[in-house]
Amino acid sequence: MAQLIADRRDVDFVLHEQFEVAELAKNDRFSEFNRKTVDLIITEARNLAIKEILPLQKISDSPGCVFDAGEVKVPEPYHKVYKTYCDGQWLAMSDSPEWGGQGMPTSVGLAANEYFYGACNSFMLFNMLTHGAARLVESFGTKEQKDQVLKNMYSGKWAGTMLLTEPEAGSDVGALTSVAKRNPDGTYSITGSKIFISGGEQDMVENIIHPTLARIEGAPAGTRGISLFLVPKYRIKPDGSPGEFNDVVCTGIEHKMGLHGNATCSLTLGGKGECIGTLIGEENKGMAAMFQMMNEARQMVGLQGFANATASYMYALDYARQRIQTKHMTDPPEAGPAAIIRHPDVRRQLMIMKSMVDGMRSLIYFNGMVQDRHKLSDSPEEKERLRNLEEVLTPIIKGYITDKAFEVCSHGVQVYGGYGYIEEYPVAQLLRDCRIFQIYEGTNGIQSIDLIGRKMGMKKGAAFMAFLEEIRKTIDMAKGIEAVKPLAENLEKLFNTYTETAAILGKAAGSDKVLDAFAFSHPFLESTGDLCMAWMLLWRAAIAAPKIGQKKKDDAFYNGQVTTARFFINTQLPITAGRLTAIQVMDGAAVAMEDAGFGG
Amino acid sequence: MAQLIADRRDVDFVLHEQFEVAELAKNDRFSEFNRKTVDLIITEARNLAIKEILPLQKISDSPGCVFDAGEVKVPEPYHKVYKTYCDGQWLAMSDSPEWGGQGMPTSVGLAANEYFYGACNSFMLFNMLTHGAARLVESFGTKEQKDQVLKNMYSGKWAGTMLLTEPEAGSDVGALTSVAKRNPDGTYSITGSKIFISGGEQDMVENIIHPTLARIEGAPAGTRGISLFLVPKYRIKPDGSPGEFNDVVCTGIEHKMGLHGNATCSLTLGGKGECIGTLIGEENKGMAAMFQMMNEARQMVGLQGFANATASYMYALDYARQRIQTKHMTDPPEAGPAAIIRHPDVRRQLMIMKSMVDGMRSLIYFNGMVQDRHKLSDSPEEKERLRNLEEVLTPIIKGYITDKAFEVCSHGVQVYGGYGYIEEYPVAQLLRDCRIFQIYEGTNGIQSIDLIGRKMGMKKGAAFMAFLEEIRKTIDMAKGIEAVKPLAENLEKLFNTYTETAAILGKAAGSDKVLDAFAFSHPFLESTGDLCMAWMLLWRAAIAAPKIGQKKKDDAFYNGQVTTARFFINTQLPITAGRLTAIQVMDGAAVAMEDAGFGG
Q1: Range scoring the smallest mean pLDDT among A278-292, A302-316, B54-68, B239-253
Q2: Can you give the residue ranges of the Acetyl-CoA dehydrogenase-like C-terminal domain (chains A, B) (predicted)?
Q3: Cis bond leading into A63, ω under 30°?
Q4: How confident is the model at residue B1 (pLDDT cuts 50, 70, 90)?
Q5: Helices (DSSP H) in B49-161: which residue ranges?
Q6: I need a surface site. Which of A430, B272, B376, B554 has the fewest CB within 10 A?
Q7: Catalytic amino acids of A?
């Protein structure tokens, strides 16, 4: 049978052959997670995803979540699956056993999540936010706050969200107007309106914890005056159970292009003056705490996009093998119609999809490995290097992967032809659902600004250098393997052009050409992502090439690795090179344009 | 007030300054259509589009068309607008007065249609198909057939469709299995099932004419055995009025990603053995006739995509001017938040949108002018040259413009941020509706194959040479204008690389590298389209540049033309150059990939 959601052979290849995750088990912290256990986890996750979560996908789209008189009802079948999911402790795979987590490596958890999110992103978004909110409390909360909520959240008994956005404070979080007033007992009374709150209200859980950004009365304007509060839907009684309603009212949900199975809520806090929150962390330091959550969320949004892309690829590949249409060009005249996978333009599309999906998978798991190594390292320098690496990878994973995931999902529709546009088939929904990932948790424009404005210069450039060094290592390694040496050399050329371009761009960003530079931040992010795809695909090819010819049954897979790297490096990277040229030229037309010149 | 759908100043610029359509009025055939009349037509079209058709857009999406027991109900407000549209004779703007057409230049009709389609593509698709079907009958029908249907169709009293696709015959029309059986009276009894029939059933008209492809019993397999029939929904009585039901049964409509306001029907013909058709043209020559209709339809699909793109650009531009968010990077610290149009990455997106929309408009109207000149020319050589040009432009207009229209609409969503994903705002629907244009009337993969497989070699390359010659003329003209000379020179370099690449690709397509070549047909189509955009933008800039400084109120517009050309040529064309490099390298990875290597 055709594989669904993800290609298991490839998942295993990345985990075990490219990154050797089972090596982590040599360390006490991960000693349980040997190869056998890892494989079992992935198999269980895959079963759960395919048998339970995937059947939610259609109903998540229609009718989706329903709003009625302040309440949000999730699609009915969510309830049973949610229970199964929580019972399996899948929500806190990589978290500390102290709070109910399973303590597995992040890289392994990501592989399991690839299946879960690919099966039904709407359903998983609830869990993603719960997890992020719990992590926030774990990092910045008081002991009391942790005791109150963490086990309930990591178990999925309670949910979590993230209350940032307001009508006039979207990308510009610092413009928010929600107010927190100090109460004599040390709590705060919160008033304000929040919009675009994913999972802001739902009926699968007995309580919802809303980490909420608000400004304490008298605090400075802008981001420096924002504090973070723990605001429960129901106040928490001394015995830990949910008590009276905390005046967090859902006033409606959005009618969206996709992701209908996750409610995007408008919330009014303290409309009756009865919304009480407790401070998380220090006063006016809310943004820094929220950034940690956002960083995790951004990486997870990258995973969300990737998961739709890998699912769309699996469907398109299967369809291309099944669908018989039109004689193949070089078949003899008497030949019948061929499976469309044989037609060159369909192959081109499948190669784009595969190279993207493979590259994304490797990059995302690599970022997981970076975090796992960070946990294991005793060296402050190494810890810092790894943290830096994660910082640089975050906007690439969020920004580049979600952009390309949308393109991959669009190819999925195209491979299906007319059927791709029909909602009866799965690829249309994957495309629609995917479109938000480029926007939320910081638009991809913001990700590109983060990359050149913050990450390139971070720690005096050390973070960015650490990133480049990783790529350089792979190129050097691959140059030592005869079968992929020409590919390594081609990538090396592009890499050199890239580093030159980065220097030019960095210099311009610090000069009076700053606006011109930032008009190229997105093309630079895209080029950076292309470079990462090529890096990961070369790495894969370098591991695969020496194994070709060893076992007949594996040859197609390993050959496929080398051919995919070859496709991407020789066919797609020249386009990247062209884009880098444009960045180097850095024509200032976009900035020079008079406003009136845009017309309208 | 912000402009809706299209930028009128730019429409006028292309009609009157770039292509001087009013010059056509010097010829008898178009003598009525002087500048004043043309302007009046566009103004009327714009009013009708904005006041009547645009209000249909939301309801076209939801609830859209509804199927009930064999009948399709269009959204109720369609009926009144349809009457107004038909009363204004807008359906047959450029058709012969003999059959009720207005006889205006095609280029002018396209400008009016830009407004209509941009206002509501779902509604207009009904009319597009009626027009295409009528043209088909006009070109290939007998006098009796024309008398029976043409006036009714061009007036919109009756509708038309196009019955090609069957479940196993999508891209491969030749695989169709519908059967026509000769009757003693010269008519044919048709049986078969058709799917994906846009407007196949509806309730705005008293009859529907279905040009239908079927195979006469005993005819050869494949496309050589296909004949075309005129199949009415209701048989036509001797007095010309609709008579008894002709056994064309709508069995359902598709639930699609977009374009809900046009019913995509499954039709069963002759289920009771009572479907009668008459032959259009000769037996077994149906494909050639249908190709004429498809060519018109392909050009119109390009217009459909463009119309969504221009509407999305107008909305995004207006939003970017209104939406205040985040301090501008080079404003002083105390400055408040700025309109997002000032932020460099938003500008970059608006520049991409504008350059695309402007280039598309010029290319589409240019193609209209080519057809107008064809009508006016007495010279067989010139007529042939113009027909060739249209042949080459068709896959570019269909394939490239619809691909880029989807990208433009996606930028429209991105500029809106989170609001872009909400269906309350107009850009999400434009994106969803737009996605089908890349698929129907021949997928864009097929367009790219048409370009390199048919059009490049057509008339021993004369058609393609005529196309290149037009671009060359514009470059030479622009090189003579100091202000745009550097841009012309940059485009010339790309043009030379392009022609080299075309030669390499053409040679490969005729060699044993044929499959590799066709794996690059789509990148070549994309590069060809990029070249056309640059060509048109340079042309615009060359006309605009000398006018700068003449009238103060026009300066922003003319400067905008030059800046847009500069943006596209200096920022986007380097990417095209990279893609051309990849085509020249022509790495065979996509073809070399083993099927099993794709995984799954």
Answers
A1: A278-292
A2: 467-593
A3: yes
A4: low
A5: 57-61, 78-87, 106-119, 121-140, 143-154
A6: B272
A7: 441
Cβ partners under 8 Å of residue A553, min gap 6 = none
Which residues of chain A neighbour B435 with C-beta distances below 8 Å?
410, 413, 421, 431
Annotation: CATH topology of A8-66+74-154 = Butyryl-Coa Dehydrogenase, subunit A; domain 1 (1.10.540)
* A328: phi then psi, degrees, rounded to nearest 5: -70, 140
- B559–A257 CB contact, under 8 Å: no
B8-65+74-154 to CATH, choices 3.40.30.10, 3.40.1400.10, 3.40.50.1980, 1.10.540.10: 1.10.540.10
Query: In chain B, where does the domain assigned CATH 2.40.110.20 lie?
Result: 159-285
- Pairwise CB contact (< 8 Å): B440 & A432: no
Euclidean distance between the first and the last CA atom of chain A, given in angstroms as a whole number: 54
Q: Is CATH 2.30.110.10 correct for B159-285?
A: no
Q: Which long-range contacts (CB under 8 A, 24 or more apart) does A16-20 make?
A: A17/A543, A17/A544, A18/A362, A18/A365, A18/A539, A18/A540, A18/A543, A19/A107, A19/A365, A19/A366, A19/A369
Residues of chain A with C-beta less than 8 angstroms from the C-beta of B258 = 421
Catalytic residue among B441, B469, B489, B500: B441
Which stretches of chain A score pLDDT less than 50? none
Domain with CATH 1.10.540.10 in chain A: 8-66+74-154
Q: DSSP assignment of B127-156, as one string?
A: HHHHHHHHHHHHHHS-HHHHHHHHHHHHTT
Smallest Cα distance from A397 to chain B, Å: 18
Q: Region B16-43: what's the mean pLDDT?
A: 98
For residue A236, the cross-strand partners are A242
Of B436, B519, B599, the CB nearest to A9: B599
Chain-centroid distance, C-alpha A169 = 23
From the CA of A155, how many Å to the nearest CA of chain B? 30
pLDDT value at position A1? 63
Residues of chain B with CATH 1.10.540.10: 8-65+74-154
pLDDT of residue B290: 86
pLDDT of A342-359, one tens digit each? 999 999 999 999 999 999
Q: Do B519 and A171 touch (CB under 8 A)?
A: no
Tokens of B405: 């229209």
Interval B108-124: pLDDT, tens: 999 999 999 999 999 99
Among the partner-chain residues B324, B351, B518, the one whose CB lies closest to the CB of A593 is B351
What backbone torsions phi and psi does residue A73 show, to the nearest 5 degrees?
-105, 125
In angstroms, rounded to a whole number, what is the distance separating the alpha carbons of residues A361 and A284?
Answer: 38
As a whole number of angstroms, the distance between CA A251 and CA A263 comes to: 12
**Half-sphere exposure at residue A375, Cβ-oriented, CA atoms within 13 angstroms:** 19
What is residue B477's predicted lDDT score, i.e. its pLDDT?
A: 98
**Model pLDDT, residue B171:** 86
Instruction: Note the pTM of the prediction, 2 decimals.
Output: 0.98
Judging by beta carbons within 10 Å of its beta carbon (0-12, 13-18, 19+), is residue B2 exposed, middle or buried?
exposed
Question: Is B478 in contact with B561 (CB distance < 8 Å)?
Answer: no
Classify domain A158-284 at the CATH topology level. Answer: Butyryl-CoA Dehydrogenase, subunit A; domain 2 (2.40.110)
Mutate to test the interface with A, among B255, B571, B573 (most CBs of A within 10 A): B571
Q: Whole-angstrom Cα distance, residue B78 to residue B61?
A: 12
What distance in Å separates the CA atoms of residue B308 and residue B403, rounded to the nearest whole number?
12
Strand partners, A72: A67
pLDDT score of B557: 98
**Is pLDDT above 80 for B366?**
yes
CA distance B88 to B91: 8
- Annotate A212-249 with b (16+ C-beta within 10 A) or e (fewer): bbbbbeebeebbebbbbbbbbbbbbeeeeebeeebbbb
Mean pLDDT, rounded, of chain B: 97
